[in-house]
Amino acid sequence: MRLLLMGLMVCFMASTSAYSQTRDLDSFNKLRVSGGIKVTLIKSSDSKADIDMERGDYDDLITEVKGDVLTIKFKSKMLNWGNNNGKADIDLYFSTLESIDASAGCTIRGEDRIVTDEMDIDVSSGSTVSVEVETNDLTVDISSGASCTLSGSTDDQEVDVSSGATYRGREMASKYTNVDVSSGATATVWATERLVADASSGATVRYKGNPKKKELDSGKWSGGSIKKLGGE
């Protein structure tokens, strides 16, 4: 019985190790992720990816650095109309990061604050991004049912949200905010100096703070809404 249990334990350990992999990466400062991949961002002096494959083959997972851009995705499957149903959980170690592009249902979250001069975040097609950022210039584009949650601080932020997407920026302090929301999307922002907001086609903007200058356009004929958060 003891030998049987030991044998099962060895098999379990072998199976577990077979489904974990570490890949060393060239340095990068831009990230593109797509498909059934969950990425946790961890600040480090090294650039590497610790991968747990939940479904699929490691050979089908691409982690490729070209120039300063790291792309993480699954290879397309010709017999599955170009799709791949692989699923992976990745701890991604990075030194600097100034761009995040998330698409096709992936998830990206930050474990550590990202400090950078400029940050560009693009989230689409049901993907989710949640990070803390300290930057001077922030650009956010969210579409097609995706969601983005940010905290931290910036001097300027440009936000574009459309097609049922959601931006949660209540904890993202900014001096100057320009937000454009349309087609049933929702955005929550925090501005202290100036707020320019445009909401149309059933979209909603909620803002925090007492900006000295405000330019608000709620699309009188298209059902948009712009309101200050209660209790502020």
What is the β-strand count? 19
User: How many domains comprise the coordinates?
Assistant: 2
Radius of gyration from CA coordinates: 21 Å
Morphology: globular
- Strand percentage lies at over 45%
Provide a count of the helices: 1
The CATH topology label of the largest domain is: Pectate Lyase C-like
Order of helices and strands: HEEEEEEEEEEEEEEEEEEE
Mean pLDDT, all residues = 91
The N- and C-terminal alpha carbons lie at a distance of: 66 Å
CATH architecture of the largest domain: 3 Solenoid
| Largest sheet composition | 19 strands, mixed
Task: Output the CATH class name of the largest domain.
Answer: Mainly Beta
Classify the helix fraction into a percent range.
Answer: under 10%
Question: What are the segments in which pLDDT stays under 50 over at least 5 consecutive residues?
Answer: 3-17
What structural category do the secondary elements indicate? mainly beta
